[in-house]
Amino acid sequence: SAAQKRKRPDQEQFKHLPLRPPVVTIMGHVDHGKTRILDAIRQTHVMESEAGGITQHIGAYQVEIKGQKITFLDTPGHEAFTAMRARGARATDITILVVAADDGIMPQTLEAIDHARAAGVPIIVAVNKIDKPGANPDRVKQQLADQGLVVEEWGGDTIAVSTSAKDGTGIDELLENILLVAEIEDLHADPNTSATGVVIEAEMDKSRGAMTTVLVQNGTLKVGDIAVIGDVFGKVKAMFNDQNKQIRKAEPSTPVAILGLPAVPNVGDTLSVATNERQARLHISEKAGRKQATVNLFSLHDQIVSGKVKELNIVLKTDVQGSIEPIRASLEKLTTENLTVHIIHAGTGNVTENDVMLAIASNGLVIGFSTGIETGAQRLSDAENVDIRQYDII
Ligand code: GDP
Predict the structure, then answer these.
(1) Where are the alpha helices (DSSP H) in the chain?
(2) What does pTM read for this prediction?
(3) How far is CA 391 from CA 155, 202, 294, 382, in A?
(4) Least packed by Cβ within 10 Å: which of 52, 131, 231, 234?
């Protein structure tokens, strides 16, 4: 069955551990309703709203449905998702792809699909705005099928839920399907060990100092722990949950804002816990040593020859739609028995920062045909030593 097929083998060794809530992000084209769906879910399902209390935004929230929790990351869009991956963090278990039923699949929808696929994260589609007079869910399903996402009612294994974030239609069904996919994904974690996690938001609070929101991914984070995040460490002085309530410990998949770090870390930095200061410093130097190797063609040739690189991930940008398929085909023809060429994303227009991010996250490179490079993209590729190859003649 589709469920068996999708089971992640790497979860096998964690089988004996308790299940943890899934962590979900939301993606899709601008204005298709990502923010409003997140709001609709929050409004109907936050676990225990404090009467009168204003919930400070901490970058994520948890809901409870049928006695089971789901964690939502509050920054919508594949940009944030891939930026996090580019820093080496896998925070998301499931992604909701929002497609407005009156608008259909648009360029950023296609990008989102490619970014989710490159990360190997399962997609649940929310066909949104079905309350609108111009809504045409069947057209969306056809467009999804054209992208290889065949919905279940048409014999495929893509879950699609019709929603209206405006009147709440389908929101519960969406949540139930998240639980279903979470069950298939079989997400376990060990609450009885020291915490590891990832930074999902960080800012300087005028009165409280560095406020770092961390998603605990394994173990339990406690007040008093020495948290090592990126290249800083500090004792956790206080922790707040998504209800702005002070808590003393946070289990796997829980987002918490922590106080006590001497500086503001970066989003995507990983968290670990040290037993003392000396060990904390050791953690930091180890992390620095593990900085992900990036691909450029100079190093690539040697790595291919020596068999170290077996897959080449390419982000392809062209000036016109018509050249994507022929270029894709000729690049894929470079596949040999020792090297598989994957075009993980192809689109038209200038090379963007987001394209470079995807290349970093996938340990790949960007190839542009008759396109320019945006300033931010150039800067990022220089900083991270990722190749952007430009060609004019096909
Ligand atoms: P985002 O850019 O994807 O985050 O989109 P937003 O959530 O900001 O929504 C864009 C616009 O569409 C806003 O004016 C929303 O109120 C509206 N909108 C979102 N979902 C729905 C829906 O289900 N039905 C209707 N009629 N409008 C919606």
Answers:
(1) 2-6, 34-45, 78-86, 107-119, 137-146, 171-185, 277-289, 297-305, 324-332, 353-361, 375-384
(2) 0.88
(3) 41, 39, 21, 18
(4) 52
The type of residue at 257 is A
Q: Is the CB of 87 under 6 A from ligand 1?
A: no
Q: Which of 26, 31, 132 best tests ligand 1's pocket when mutated (most atoms within 8 Å of CB)? A: 31
DSSP-assigned states of every residue in 133-150: TT--HHHHHHHHHHTT--
Place of tokens 């360029």: 107
* Closest atom of ligand 1 to CA, residue 98: 3
Tokens linked to 6: 């999708």
* 46 secondary structure, DSSP code: B
Q: How far is CA 233 from the centre of its chain?
A: 25
* Angle, helix 353-361 to helix 78-86, in steps of 10 degrees: 50
Q: Which residue has the tokens 């987001």?
A: 354
One-letter amino acid at 353 equals E
- Best residue for ligand 1 mutational test, from 32, 35, 36 (most atoms within 8 Å of Cβ): 36
Measured by CA distance, the residue closest to atom 20 of ligand 1 is 33
Give per-residue pLDDT as tens, 374-386.
Answer: 999 999 999 988 8
| Residue type, position 142, single letter | Q
Residue 123: name the closest of 103, 107, 154, 147 by CA. 147
Q: Residue 274 forms beta bridges with which residues?
A: 226
Q: How many C-beta atoms surround the C-beta of residue 358 within 10 A?
A: 28
Rounded Cα gap, residues 259 and 282, in angstroms? 22
> 169 with 233: CB under 8 angstroms?
no
Provide the edge-to-edge strand list for the sheet that holds 68-73. 60-65, 68-73, 23-28, 94-100, 123-128, 159-162
Q: Is 217:268 a contact under the CB 8 Å cutoff?
A: no
Length of the chain: 394
* Contact criterion met (CB below 8 Å) for 8 and 186: yes
Count the neighbouring beta carbons within 10 Å of the beta carbon of residue 317.
Answer: 26
For 170-221, the pLDDT digits (tens) are: 999 999 999 999 999 999 999 999 999 999 999 988 888 899 999 999 999 9
pLDDT digits (tens, 9 = 90+) for 316-370: 999 998 889 999 998 888 888 888 999 999 999 999 999 999 999 998 999 999 9
Burial of 158 (C-beta count, 10 Å sphere; 0-12/13-18/19+): buried
